[in-house]
Amino acid sequence: MIGVVERISSTDIACSNSATLVTAISELNVYTQSISTGKFASTLYTYKSVEREKMTNSHSEESTRKTSHVFQCMQCDLQFQADTVTVRVEGTQEEEEQLVRLRLPEGISPTQRAIAEQMYVSSGGESTHMKSLTQPLRDEHRELLPHIERLRTVADAIGTEPEESVRRGVDEVYTFLTEQLTPHAQAEERVLYPAVGRLMGAAEATATMRQEHRDIHQYTQELGILRQHLSETSLSKPDERTLRRVLYGLYALIKGHFAREEEIYLPLLDTRLTARDALQMFEALEMAAQEAKRSVI
């Protein structure tokens, strides 16, 4: 049976609220249940195993049982559910537990998903077959790309669409830059780039990428000033040219920055990091990003 990863919807038993989830689990047809603790890398977690159903095939003497494992990270508040089926042939002691699906909360980040997958594997579960150790970082870039493309389309709209539409577009991309991209960059500065520097034996190996972060920050500040001006008065022709320059500059800089990370640094991490190292890095990235987002708020 092939494991399937799916996100939690409002109709699933597993949900983002811990108390609600425990209550829902307790209302299942429970045969046996156990609560365990575990640790993988620096992650401490608990998981509650609930046996939901037993079945026996009288023809093959094969028995199966369905179990739900509810995981709770004690450090990052991540909670998810792994549904499994265990098969055992009567007369033998051999059992094989197979993952049916991994239920993850809606809105989960790629790094949180990687932490969940590694947490499940560390508890004794089967691998979810991640393509590469840094795939969550590539996935996070892909999630950000539509917002980056929006920088270009807003720039294209200047002078051709109503000013109110341009104003809304500028508000949208500025919010993305300050509330999503900036925390992402700060987490990289604190965690990812030092890791690359250690592996390459040269802290200055990521100097170009750090400079690009500073350039992006400078462009974002300039966009903030233009945004304020746009909220107070109409744009003059020179203002339009400046706004286009800033938006197109951000678009080109960020697209190129992501490409360089994925072509140069992530392959290095794939070949040099262990699974344990990668999980520790994901944990640190997630915590750094969350801290940066709180500072924005």
The outline comes out as elongated
Tell me the count of domains.
2
Q: Structural class, judged by helices and strands? A: alpha+beta
Average pLDDT confidence is 76
Question: What CATH architecture label of the largest domain applies?
Answer: Up-down Bundle
Helix content: 55-70%
Low-confidence stretches: 1-45, 56-60
Number of strands: 6
Order of helices and strands: EHEEEEEHHHHHH
Tell me what you see in this structure.
It is built from 7 helices and 6 strands. A hairpin with a 2-residue loop joins strand 2 (32-40) and strand 3 (43-57). The protein has 2 domains: 4-122, no CATH class; 135-296, Four Helix Bundle (Hemerythrin (Met), subunit A) (Up-down Bundle), CATH 1.20.120. The chain has 297 residues and is of the alpha+beta class. Strands 1-6-5-4-3-2 form a 6-stranded mixed sheet. It has helices at 18-26, 110-122, 135-157, 163-200, 207-232, 237-272, 275-296; strands spanning 4-7, 32-40, 43-57, 62-73, 79-89, 95-104. The longest helix is centred in the middle third of the chain and has 38 residues, at 163-200. The model is unreliable at 1-45 and 56-60 (pLDDT under 50).
Q: How does the SSE layout of this entry go?
A:
Layout lengths: L3 E4 L10 H9 L5 E9 L2 E15 L4 E12 L5 E11 L5 E10 L5 H13 L12 H23 L5 H38 L6 H26 L4 H36 L2 H22 L1
Parallel strand pairs: 1-6
Antiparallel strand pairs: 2-3, 3-4, 4-5, 5-6
